[in-house]
Amino acid sequence: MSYQFSELSALYKSTLLENVIPFWETNSLDWSHGGYFTCLDREGKVYDTDKFIWLQNRQLWTFSMLYNRLDKKESWLKIAHHGAKFLAEKGRDSEGNWYFSLNQAGEPLVQPYNIFSDCFAAMAFSQYALASGETSAQEIALQAYKNVLRRQKNPKGKYNKTFPGTRNLKSLAVPMILANLSLEMDWLLHSEQLEEILDNTVQEIMTDFIDPELGLMYENVTPDGSFMDCFEGRLINPGHGIEAMWFVMDIARRRQDTKLINQAVDIMLNILNFGWDTKYGGIYYFLDLKGHPPQQLEWDQKLWWVHLESLVALAMGYGLTQRAECWQWYQKVHDYTWQHFPDSDNGEWFGYLNRRGEVLLNLKGGKWKGCFHVPRGLYLCWQQFSDSATNK
Amino acid sequence: MSYQFSELSALYKSTLLENVIPFWETNSLDWSHGGYFTCLDREGKVYDTDKFIWLQNRQLWTFSMLYNRLDKKESWLKIAHHGAKFLAEKGRDSEGNWYFSLNQAGEPLVQPYNIFSDCFAAMAFSQYALASGETSAQEIALQAYKNVLRRQKNPKGKYNKTFPGTRNLKSLAVPMILANLSLEMDWLLHSEQLEEILDNTVQEIMTDFIDPELGLMYENVTPDGSFMDCFEGRLINPGHGIEAMWFVMDIARRRQDTKLINQAVDIMLNILNFGWDTKYGGIYYFLDLKGHPPQQLEWDQKLWWVHLESLVALAMGYGLTQRAECWQWYQKVHDYTWQHFPDSDNGEWFGYLNRRGEVLLNLKGGKWKGCFHVPRGLYLCWQQFSDSATNK
């Protein structure tokens, strides 16, 4: 199937504004206790009321971002405010670290055991501060950002179960999130600080985490960027690597660094070639570099975010380079994604499919899926194709 | 298909002695560094050399148990000694807590972050002490047992991520393992202490963890044994509940408590009715009590240990009660299990199948599957059917 940019732009726009955002506007607001419900079944009914901080902050980010970048709709700002108020009051411990989860009333359930809650809080409150103009939101964003910087070398703190010294590994997630987060917060950071962080993270991602032979992204490497032949070292997470590549393209575009853009595109294409399921279609969730059985029992499943991040990366990569491989891959991933994930009956997208592409969990949201990857991916693809249609 | 006890007895015996045990004897011994390899691919080749303490201890248990109960084969004692030596030297921290994993050389990788490493160490060294007569093995077993008792109220210690007070839950795994472990160690414990622990654990399992309406086993309940409507509270782990029921039958048989035996059989049958996949056959890995989407992405997979524990529970339940439902269910689970798990080409059993019963991971062992559930299940079913054939 071949696509017109203008048709694609219209498809992404209408799905975002007429299908996905209304699903969350209608179903996710907890009017009694504040914050958002994310455990929504296929029809949007709440099946669990726990509040996971990643997803609370991500929904706050989404509505703030739409307000800032798309349309100053009062209803979007109100939804953002609804989450920001709950999170500012309930989301942090006495030292300002962000919990992992709360119950419906906002009482803490799971301790701040890693830095990703803080990452998403910084992203969310930075967007919300822009939207609302609230100084307190800026302060919350900067506090969370400082937590991330302070804890980046030991993200799990006292909850780290690794015995020190035997096998030190560092994780792609840390520089990757730092790159994206710092770009998000550019308006709040000193430009020198920002450029230094971007330099370091891009350097780390594009040297330490790349397999020199296959050109794939590792998830975990030794501190000096070497491969370690163990389960964690052999792990390939295609969606994560591809997402990292569009973060890098985003930074490279800002710097007009064509070489870096092409390098990121090369790696993205390598990952797609490696991670594509040639039998049933779709991108695997996890693979072992050497083809051994991975530890993750869900390795062969097809996840919504993996496919959305790939569409973003491919649309961006094509927009920036016009390389034919990007367009061929875009169409292949587009066909699979749009055929399998959207729920034509009830709106929004399924999150988890089995290897064959059949619905594995009959939900629209849960502990890890909320109002984030679908709307962000749709927004970014829409903008990309809208630009491409204009520049054609 | 209908079965003769004598045929079943012969099937379990020959599979254990001619197929499964030789697979581990041939492939799992690390002659250079000591201990066992458990990451074995379909053919038995080592694909990873890390040593997971649960599995190291479980293999030590298996070979010691076979030596103690079946046949005083010097080669089995030698294999047990090979693991015991490695574990005694490398398995514990300076306070005597058992690590979770080591690298090939035996250097610690993952800290002692819960009590299950200690549980399996106590089981293993108790059997090995019986087999070898080594006093030091007895001491190791008793030290590990004391660790379990000391840490049972807070099994994860400082690694516990739960915020205290908001939602306290206790886990079925703790009383369940304590019941089985204490029976295993009866020869090392004072009989009063043993009987008190058995009383308490059986009481706790059979009252606190049972759903009063559906007669199913919960995995997690409040400290006073109430249901909690959250992901952890709604979780049903059929294999775990069924395994707990044969532990209870084992204790009840010892006490000639017919009422308790029948109660355990009732619950086992309820779990099987709830947990059986009526479309593709086999027993699900995880379910939500209310039918909501579970958190576990692997929920619909068919795991070897779930099916082996069910065969043990059904054979035992039928042997003890002669109830027709036990026999009907035994045959149903037998057919599924023997058709799907054994690898006729290379010996031993696959561990992980997808919902359709297709092989999901092309392995015989890994981080969680070692030389334990298959040989233990085969041994117990063999003994049960051998008894039944004799008593017929």
Keywords:
homodimer, 392 residues, mainly alpha, 55% helix, 6% strand
Structure description:
The structure is a homodimer of 392-residue chains. Chain A is mainly α and 392 residues long. Chain A has a domain at 169-361: Glycosyltransferase (Alpha/alpha barrel), CATH 1.50.10. Helix content of chain A is 55%, strand content 6%. Chain A contains 13 helices and 11 strands. In chain A, the strands form 5 sheets. The first copy, chain A, has a 3-stranded antiparallel beta sheet. In chain A, strands 1-2 form a two-stranded antiparallel sheet. The first copy, chain A, has a two-stranded antiparallel sheet with strand order 6-7. In chain A, helix 6 runs antiparallel to helix 7. The radius of gyration of chain A is 20 Å and the shape is globular. The relative contact order of chain A is 0.13. The mean pLDDT of chain A is 96.
